[in-house]
Design a protein that fits this description.
globular; two-stranded antiparallel ribbon; alpha+beta; 173 residues; 9 strands
């Protein structure tokens, strides 16, 4: 297991089994340092806030031939499997990749489930824009010009209205 799991390059963190014994899901991770901006707590209080990293994760289905061909393995302290380096070693050409984020109002669904909206981890409130929940999608891309798409969520959380109390004479007590 990887103890210090901070890498700016996309790494293979886990190889997960699927129902098909020939297909696996790669859990890919990347940590990107957020730019320091004026008034940013990470800049002024790095000891409390931390290194101000954006942690990205994406999942990619691959078959066993892909894993064998590119010598894909789970990253460990003594051997980190950088996704692009594994591919470059076989192809003989430099390959770069990154994890892209796209936020949208469209919920993905599949057999047996549906995507959950983004939440504020401290309050567990669903993040939304103009009352519409925000959904976060990620994927690995080899197009280094592909840009992230974010939706700025509403700052105020709209509280649910309390149910109206009704007085009636037909309650028998």
């Amino acid at each position: 297991m990887l103890v210090d799991n901070t890498t700016e390059k996309v790494r293979v963190d886990k190889i997960l089994s699927t129902k098909n014994p020939n297909v696996f899901t790669l859990e890919l991770r990347q940590e990107i340092k957020k730019p320091e901006t004026s008034g940013d707590l990470g800049f002024f209080m790095p000891g409390i806030v931390g290194s101000n990293l954006e942690k990205r994760v994406a999942y990619r289905n691959v078959d066993d031939t892909f894993i064998d061909m590119y010598k894909i393995h789970e990253s460990e302290d003594d051997s980190i499997c950088y996704f692009s380096d594994s591919i470059s070693a076989v192809t003989g050409t430099t390959v770069d990749c990154k994890i892209v984020i796209e936020e949208t109002h469209t919920q993905r669904t599949w057999d047996g489930g549906s995507q959950q909206p983004k939440i504020n981890p401290k309050t567990m409130d669903v993040l939304s824009k103009n009352g519409k929940p925000i959904y976060r999608n990620t994927w690995v891309t080899f197009d280094m010009n592909e840009q992230d798409t974010y939706i700025a969520h509403d700052k105020a959380v709209v509280a649910q209205t309390a149910p109206a109390v009704t007085v009636t004479d037909d309650i028998p007590f």
